[in-house]
Amino acid sequence: MLVKKKAGCLLAGMMLFPMISYASEPVEPIKPVTNVNLDEVELGKKLYFDPRLSKSGFISCNSCHNLSMGGTDNLKTSIGHNWQQGPINSPTVLNSSLNLAQFWDGRAADLKEQAGGPIANPKEMAFTHMLAVDVLKSIPEYASEFKRVFGSDQIDIDNVTQAIAEFEKTLVTPNSRFDQWLLGDQQAITSYEHEGYQIFKTSGCVACHNGEALGGNSFQKMGLVQPYKTSNSAEGLAGVTGKDADRFKFKVPTLRNVELTYPYFHDGEAETLQEAVDLMAKLQLGRTFSTDENAKVVAFLRTLTGDQPSFVLPQLPPSTSKTPRPEPFDN
Amino acid sequence: MLVKKKAGCLLAGMMLFPMISYASEPVEPIKPVTNVNLDEVELGKKLYFDPRLSKSGFISCNSCHNLSMGGTDNLKTSIGHNWQQGPINSPTVLNSSLNLAQFWDGRAADLKEQAGGPIANPKEMAFTHMLAVDVLKSIPEYASEFKRVFGSDQIDIDNVTQAIAEFEKTLVTPNSRFDQWLLGDQQAITSYEHEGYQIFKTSGCVACHNGEALGGNSFQKMGLVQPYKTSNSAEGLAGVTGKDADRFKFKVPTLRNVELTYPYFHDGEAETLQEAVDLMAKLQLGRTFSTDENAKVVAFLRTLTGDQPSFVLPQLPPSTSKTPRPEPFDN
């Protein structure tokens, strides 16, 4: 069992090896969050946990991007309003601020645009932006907090999604053992895990899974060398660009905290890391990892779990007699 | 706006007026929790938030007893597995350790017995105790935590519900403004709120809503003076005792944090406190409150909101390749 170095030692390490140990690596350490509006973050945290942004009053952002479970629901595809089966695996919200775009097909430019999607999606939260805003307006504590945060009596979906996105920016996970290694702590990962990293680099995984998030920064075809067989009907980027060449191109998912974000792929069909690594090697790289290689890569991937978001469960202000009531059932 | 006294002042107040100010009152202050097993509490907190105790992997204790929302789901009746409509309003988990029994009909003797109910209820979490235990056994971090907490390699539903119940014992809400008043702080409630308390006492509400939790300590017939009209088919205590005299007898709900625990009654039909107070006066006391009386009683009830549970959102240990996977959909 490796013991994490204390922050003081880490800082000392950083000063001794400034940008040396990882300057030549294709992966960069996650940077702790800075430069967020803390008032927006606190408001956004409440909204993230508030199921009153859904028609049923039962589904919140945290239902499918559960911050107790790596920012996912750990289901193949999600459960939406009226127990509808979602079309695609819910990607993790952790480190999602590092993505070049949001959703598997990149149809939202940023976190703010993304946040509005599920609220109004009839298969997810099944509400409308106007009704969600009406709920918030009817709750005096929200009204006063919006006013304090945004300096206006107006509450609109723009402010709502701005606050949620600002909270989501704080959901980065620095300080993984691998990042400690990148920052110069040679003992932070084992030689076995290091061998896994070498295989990860030399076999080509790193071609797509690179940068701060080990992914999230490009779209790639699922099934590059061998076609991927799936019953999932998602077509990926082509649905956004209309280009046939973009069929089955999906945003490369981050590998940060990947041991927590199972099951894998846009269809959630790979249940374990072992299975996901095996299939990725075949489909994308045209190679077959030996059992030993696979195990080493998986061991490396498990070093990518960083500090999970840590905050006090938010308390939500109560509805009033003016608050539109949730409608969970059609009867 | 009233400012809460600091703990130091409160303690001083308690010493100056030991048991004097509320000795003659039918309501007692909520006592802060003591005498819990903190290791069990920490384990139970994880289990409380873990949706893997449900068949779908989507529903946890916190889904219907949401600790961001007064320990309830704020729905008339809850949403269960496959979006089934629950038969009855989910009572708050806050201060539930003070109840003489659990569930509206008292069919569980205590919190531990209660905790096993929803897990195996096909309309709620739709799992079995054996499958839930299998899930936990397959997760090494849980296995080692159970061993550390209970000193045995065995994980069983007895330990699971013991830990959940121990966590729930911590969910008391001391320090409401009304309790500050009971403890001698004359300024903690307004004279208007105090008038509401007097009406509450003199009109007979306090006959059932008394003690530390203002309820939870007896079963009473819903519709004592006037019959209650509802389409809800729950029969209350009679379902437990088999006695016809117990039909429509329900456990008197606590009024602690009642401004957060809407909607009201076992069928959730009263949306607002105003409506609930009006109907209770008519049905149980045979009287009609004036608008002024109603408003004062409601103002008093709003002084019963105590300190909400405050803790860091727990992180759940990840499943492994051996963990049985959730089955949210039948296909």
Automatic annotation (TrEMBL), chains A, B:
UniProt subcellular location: Periplasm
Cofactor(s), by name: heme
Ranges for domain Cytochrome c: 39-147, 191-305
Region (Disordered): 311-331
Signal peptide: 1-23
GO molecular function: cytochrome-c peroxidase activity; electron transfer activity; heme binding; metal ion binding
Alphabetized InterPro entries for the sequence: Cyt_c-like_dom (IPR009056), Cyt_c-like_dom_sf (IPR036909), Cytochrome_c_Peroxidase/MauG (IPR051395), Di-haem_cyt_c_peroxidsae (IPR004852), MauG/Cytc_peroxidase (IPR026259)
Record Pfam families: CCP_MauG, Cytochrom_C
Main location: periplasm
One Gene Ontology cellular component: periplasmic space
PROSITE patterns: CYTC
Cofactor note: Binds 2 heme groups.
SUPFAM superfamilies for this protein: Cytochrome c
Designated name of the protein: Cytochrome-c peroxidase
